[in-house]
């Protein structure tokens, strides 16, 4: 048998394998934050429901103790999930987006008018080559997590767990905000690069065109 036939084929570029990542630590941390908040929320609810003790009608003290334990567990799950969501929001906005796909965004307030505007930043063409695996992981996780929280919201409504709706709404606001911001940032980057290349990236016209696109996206 030919020895070359027994050797495993290398994974194609863009495959969902963290070993192909240009920034594996950043990627794994990013995925960890993306997954952990959903897992803590889902597993926390499952554990609370599985450990639920039906109070005895003849023992009101037992009823009060069980309710107190359940309330403490719910508060702990709420706090831990909020902290993980905040860490995920900060990490993807300031670190993961910049390192994995070369994109970053923030919000500025005009001191004269008081109006807020989104500002988008992308790496200069030719200065950063985005790894296909990093890009695929990033965009899949970016769009998948809001869908999971929408599913959690539907489950909370169906199961009449209205106490968890504020937490789910906070999660939806944070995840959807990052998703919309990075989507617009990606469109800004593509439009800016296209404008610069159309007028010549190395001359004044290309620079003016790129700045015009940048200003339009930052105000929209």
Q: Mind summarizing the main beta sheet?
A: 2 strands, antiparallel
Give the overall form: globular
What Rg is obtained from the alpha carbons, in whole angstroms? 24 Å
Which range does the strand content fall in? 5-15%
Number of helices: 6
Give the strand order of the largest sheet, numbering strands 1, 2, ... along the chain: 1-2
Mean pLDDT, nearest integer? 77
Structural class: mainly alpha
Number of strands: 2
Could you give the order of the helices and strands? HHHEEHHH
| Percent in helix | 55-70%
- Contiguous low-pLDDT stretches (5 residues minimum) are 53-63, 195-220
**End-to-end Cα distance:** 63 Å
Task: Please sum up the structure shown.
It is a multi-pass membrane protein. Pfam families: DUF846. The chain has 220 residues and is mainly alpha-helical.
Characterization of the model:
This protein is mainly alpha-helical and 220 residues long. The termini are far apart. The protein has a two-stranded antiparallel ribbon with strand order 1-2. The chain has helices at 3-6, 24-50, 60-101, 132-158, 165-199, 204-219, and strands at residues 103-109, 116-122. Helices cover 69% and strands 6% of the residues. The protein contains 6 helices and 2 strands. It has a domain at 18-102 and 128-180.
Which features does this protein show?
single chain, 220 residues, mainly alpha, 69% helix, golgi apparatus, transmembrane, transmembrane helix, membrane
